[in-house]
Amino acid sequence: MISVENLSKYFTLHILGEKRIEACRDVSFRVPPGGFLGLAGPSGAGKSTVLKCLYRTYLATGGAIRYDSAALGPVDLATLPDRAVIDIRHREMGYVSQFLKVIPRVSALDVVMEPILTRNGVSRETARERAIHLLEQLRIPEHLFDAYPATFSGGEQQRINIARAVSWKPRLLLLDEPTASLDKDSVGIVLDILRELREEGTTMIGIFHDTALLQSVTDSVYTIC
Amino acid sequence: MHAEADYSRMWLYLYEDIVNFGEITISYRYPVTVNGRYITDPSPIPRWDVPKLHMADTLFLFGAGREKRIYAIPPHTTVEPLEFEDHTFRTENFAGKKCARCGATDTFLDEVIDNVGGGRSYFCSDSGYCDKRSEQWIR
Amino acid sequence: MDSLIRIRHLSKRFGPGCDRCLASTGPEHDTNLCRHCGSVTACNDLSFDLFPDEALGVVGESGSGKSTLVRLMHFEWEASGGSMEVHRSCAAGFLPELFADNAEYSSNLLGLSHFQKRQMRNALMGIVYQNPHLGLRMQVSSGGNIAERLLGAGWRNIANMRQRAAELLERTEIPVQRMDEPPCNFSGGMQQRVQIAKALSNNPLILFLDEVTTGLDLSVQARVLDLIRNLRSEFKLSMLVVSHDLGVINLLCQRTMVLKSGHVVEQGLTDQILQDPQHRYSQLLVASQL
Questions:
Q1: Nearest CA to B99 among B51, B45, B139, B137?
Q2: Which of A3, A117, A125, C73 has the fewest CB atoms within 10 Å, measured from its CB?
Q3: Predicted structure pTM score
Q4: Measured between beta carbons, which residues in chain C are less than 8 angstroms from residue A60?
Q5: In this structure, are residues A137 and A129 in contact, taking their beta carbons and an 8 Å threshold?
Q6: What are the start-end ranges of the E strands in chain B?
Q7: CA dist C111 to A183, C16, C78, C262, Å?
Q8: What is the mean pLDDT of residues A189-212?
Q9: Order of strands, edge to edge, in the sheet holding C40-50?
Q10: CA nearest to B19 within chain C
Q11: How many pairs of residues across B and C have Cβ atoms under 8 Å apart?
């Protein structure tokens, strides 16, 4: 499904006297279709960098990110033209960040509904039902459905974030500490949702700060040092 | 404007007139399309006489002194006043009207629409003749 | 997917120009002014594609060539060189002579007659300027401002035009009972929304937004941006969003181009430009923002 070969990322800071910062080097791993790979390593090792390179928020400095796209066939995400990356993001690749980054002044329900509506080609009613189901599953109180997530607590925001990322059932899902700010019960719910998604065929790559958690949900672990 | 047949400003003027007064209030210089292509305002011909320009036997010459230009409408040429589908061109209806100043019923009249109230009044087109009649009236 | 518009090597110079203009201007010289002949190279060798249903951001400081680019594409100014082509699907219907047999893209639009450019603009384009005085007739009613575009496109029925104007004003959150008032009576945010209504009146495929929220209060700015965002998903428009504000670009655009002294120094996905800018100037821009 996805195979990363000798991925490296340096930042060259032109405005700080051409300072070079190494974020990761020679990262290589392979995830089979339907697999769940965990990324481990000390903080600052470059775990998030790797995910951001896969999602193309960062431009890889070297190496290849070979991905078997359902829409476009085999591609290298490190060098694929921007438009094709947008296409893949739109159709098959999702990303959950550590922090909620949504459009301001959009209600929680709309935040979750929006990707379903624009990607899955379902009716507004169906999208709404699926979004409400997810929000209920994640124990977001009903009176918050039409409120703006910017005003929510950290844990609530994070659950909205997850609901939005999984709502449209992406083919490949990148998870950057999706459970970092959640209590134990919420973590359990999120893991259930991820499990359901995997059963439907989603391939995942994730970072979890909790080692026990990492071991329990993933089926292989790659350690970056 | 003419080269690109961009006459939307003229049309917009008519639109605003209709929106503000419920009808087109232009009494002379009523814009016309000549030969299906060029828009011109046949100043100083009153609206009443505009239909006479259409397929006329005569050549019309218009001088625009300030612009240092002369316009011509050739004979046997189509001349159509600008109009909307739901607000067609109309000439003034003078039947049974008389001059509000001198009371004449046998002269050519001008229609004047009040830009504020929208009221309509009629005056002799030949103001010299109207003056003369008014003086007689007073006497 | 094919692009809607292809821009290649687009350039605009003001002044006589000399053979040292290009060597003495550009991002590495931090100027677009040639010190030998005094000419300004406002845009140099810009090449990019605008795709259907995408919002492409154009960022850069004032004098980087952003607004010049819009005015060239909107045929307000004549380019000094380069080409602009549209895809067959959006213009072959009304200007078939621009397309050779089986050609996917038109001939160079920059070489068209004024009349053809006007046709192209009336059929395909809408524009919203930073300064509403450029996009609106301030003394003419708001409905009339919209009607002007419809009249240009051949509409000749007052009732129909008024209905269309009312729909657009309602969509852009202007109270319909104020449609016969001139925009000079309105606040800055309302004037921008009337401009947007006017720009949308001909169902354009391409909308140019030139610093549309610059100078508005924050809350008004937010409302205008929300409107634009909703309209984009509703009308399936392509937009060229020019702004010096990375926040605006981040909110509206998936792809972004960074301009500096008339050159494109970087183009990429918006989140990549914001989080991993490559060029020195993009890095400076992002660093100054935060």
A1: B137
A2: A125
A3: 0.88
A4: none
A5: no
A6: 32-34, 38-40, 60-64, 69-73, 79-81, 109-113, 120-124
A7: 64, 21, 9, 22
A8: 92
A9: C40-50, C5-14, C81-86
A10: C180
A11: 49
